[in-house]
Design brief:
The protein has 135 residues and is mainly beta. It contains one helix and seven strands. Strand 3 and strand 4 form a beta hairpin.
């Protein structure tokens, strides 16, 4: 059977991206994303939040580390991945995360520094950064 693994998320960063490099020199950025969902239950308006870990590779990881910060809006287009490992004391662990294939930066919130320019901060490009596919 053929599978299909595609996920698109729009949310706010829950922490600043953590940029590091693999031993071979590939940039990797990790950050959290909060995705809100509003719905009605009976006569009440409800809201729930889903927290998702995001991992980004390549040049796109460096751009995320440079231009994104906690609270910023981002659109993530990627795939779901499960990582499995064993701890030093022999316990098996696993977690799901999204491997981003593209990250589109949302508008920046207005600066609280009293900048009269206000408005949105400019990014180097007006399109998402396409990531190389790393397995």
């Amino acid at each position: 059977m053929v599978g299909f693994n595609k996920i698109i998320l729009i949310g706010n960063l829950t922490r600043n991206p953590e940029l590091r490099y693999t031993p071979s020199g590939t940039p990797v950025a990790n950050f959290g994303l909060a995705v809100n969902r509003r719905f009605r239950q009976a006569d009440d308006q409800k809201e729930e939040v889903c927290f998702v870990d995001i991992v980004v590779f390549g040049k796109q990881a460096e751009h995320c580390g440079q231009y994104l910060s906690k609270g910023d809006v981002a659109i993530i287009d990627g795939r779901l991945q499960q990582r499995r490992w064993e701890t030093e004391d022999g316990q098996r662990r696993s977690k799901h995360e999204v491997v981003a294939q593209s990250v589109t930066f949302g508008p920046k919130k207005q600066s609280h520094t009293g900048d009269p320019g206000g408005g949105e901060e400019e990014y180097p490009h007006d399109h998402p950064y396409e990531s190389e596919e790393y397995a």
